[in-house]
Amino acid sequence: MKIIFLNIYNGVEERGSEIFVSELACRLVSKHEVTVVQSGLKGKFPYRQKVIMGIPYLSNSGFRNIFYHFLVLYFTLRALPFIIKEGCDWLIPVNGRSQVLICRLVRKIKKCRILIGGHAGIGREDGINLIIGRPDIFVALTPSALTWAKHIAPRTKVQLIPNAVDLKKFHLKTENKTQFKRPLVLSVSAILPYKRIDLLIKAIAKLPGVNFLLIGDGPARTEITKLGASLLPERFFYIPHVKHNKMPIYYGAADIFSLPSKSSEAFGLVYLEAMASNLPVVAPSDDNRKFIIGKAGLLCNVSDLDD
What sequence ranges are listed for the domain Glycosyl transferase family (predicted)? Predict the structure, then answer.
């Protein structure tokens, strides 16, 4: 089969959606013809990469969100001639809204099928993708998302397929030595309000001698790093960017992993990466985290700093 992924920032960022696309494409390419349409430069991957040049990077959080979706529209329209010319059996749009609508038009012209993954989570964005995109298959990442998707789009075929990680990449046999003090709490996250990194900093501040390493970047970077430096003097460490293939080193150097995201978090691939690294996990006690982590971690009311 011919499969085309559309993801604007593959080759630019290494967040959850970009990692998901790259990992899945690498596995599918052994039996299928796979192309990833992206704005980033080509990397060393076995699948074909079609680069749409001239697309600036813009975060999709806060007031930037509307401009981000204009960029997605521009990116998708630029990719359209290539998609029409190439044709495919399956078209997998990742960026939502106008992109899924354009893919519907391609489906009418080229008679392909559309698969949409529920990476945005329960709420407006995936609701738009389901109702406007009308995919042939919608992939829910958790049972809660499965029930919700079936309710709002009863005529759409919905499948439950959770995210996964390659265990071999994260299971290191030797202890990793880094410059960070121990004991060490690690969090890997885009620095966005709904990730609630501020709660984690405040909780660690109550634990004398415990250090905190935050890896990630985002619009709330200045606010969060100032808070970390203020509440955790000489115990707060921050790295904005780490290549994904280097992340096992940092998981292996930590003692605990935590990410206190709101329940709107669709999945959280980093929880799986931490558990694959044999790292204890502390996470919110919501339905999605109960499904993802289960008895493999400690689930609590993260908004209560004394829980």
Answer: 177-285
Residue type, 51: V
pLDDT, tens digit (0-9, with 9 covering 90-100), for 128-147: 999 999 999 999 999 999 99
Residue 209 to residue 127: CA distance in whole angstroms: 45
Q: What is the DSSP letter of 77?
A: H
Four-point Cα dihedral 298, 302, 306, 307, nearest 10: -40
CATH of 167-300, picked from 3.90.1300.10, 3.90.950.10, 3.40.630.30, 3.40.50.2000, is 3.40.50.2000
Residue range(s) in the chain whose domain bears CATH number 3.40.50.11190:
2-160
CATH number 3.40.50.300 given to 2-160: no
- Output b/e per residue, 101-134; b: 16+ Cβ within 10 A: bbbeebbeebebebbbbbbbbbeebbebbbeebb
Give the CA radius of gyration of the chain: 20
What residue has token string 């993708």?
A: 129
Is residue 73 exposed (0-12), middle (13-18) or buried (19+ Cβ within 10 Å)?
Answer: middle
Is the backbone peptide bond immediately before 183 cis, with ω within 30 degrees of 0?
yes
Question: For residue 288, which amino acid is it?
Answer: N
Q: What is the DSSP string of 158-211?
A: EEE------HHHH--SSPPP-SS-SSEEEEE----GGG-HHHHHHHHTTSTT-E
